[in-house]
Design goal:
7 strands; 5-stranded antiparallel beta sheet; 34% strand; 113 residues; two-stranded antiparallel sheet; mainly beta; globular
Length: 113
C-alpha cells in the first residue's frame, strides 16, 4: 500500500517555538484543536519523541500514531497505527500505514511563514 500525503498550511504571528510547543505535545491537542482528548501511551510528558505512541480522540474515534522522526522545530513524521478508516483501491480499511510530515516554520526565521 502506498503512502498517503496530506498537507495543510496556515499563517500565524506566533513565534515558531510557541507553535512547536503546542503541536509537538499530544497532551495539549484538546486545548487548541477539535479533539476531545489526547496524550501518549503509556502516559508521559511531551514533547513527542521518536518511538512515542500518541493518541487523539474526536467524538467516538480515537486515532493512534507512532512517531518516527522529529526535527524540532520544523517537522514530525509519524505512522498512523489505527483509528481513522481510509478508502484505498476501493476497499475501506481501518488499518493503514502512512508517513505524514507535520512541518512548521519553513526557514528558521523565528516566525512561521
Amino acid at each position: 500500500m502506498g503512502d498517503l500525503h496530506v498537507e495543510a498550511e496556515g499563517t500565524t504571528l506566533a513565534e515558531v517555538k510557541t507553535v512547536w510547543a503546542l503541536v509537538a505535545d499530544a497532551n495539549t491537542y484538546a486545548q487548541w484543536g477539535p479533539w476531545n482528548d489526547g496524550g501518549y501511551d503509556p502516559p508521559t510528558e511531551g514533547p513527542s519523541r521518536p518511538g512515542s505512541v500518541q493518541w487523539f480522540r474526536f467524538g467516538r474515534t480515537t486515532s493512534v500514531e507512532k512517531i518516527l522522526e522529529v526535527d524540532a522545530p520544523s517537522k514530525i513524521i509519524y505512522t498512523v497505527m489505527r483509528g481513522i478508516p481510509v478508502r484505498t483501491t476501493g476497499r475501506r480499511s481501518p488499518w493503514y500505514r502512512t508517513s505524514p510530515v507535520r512541518r512548521f516554520g519553513g526557514q528558521p526565521r523565528g516566525k512561521t511563514r
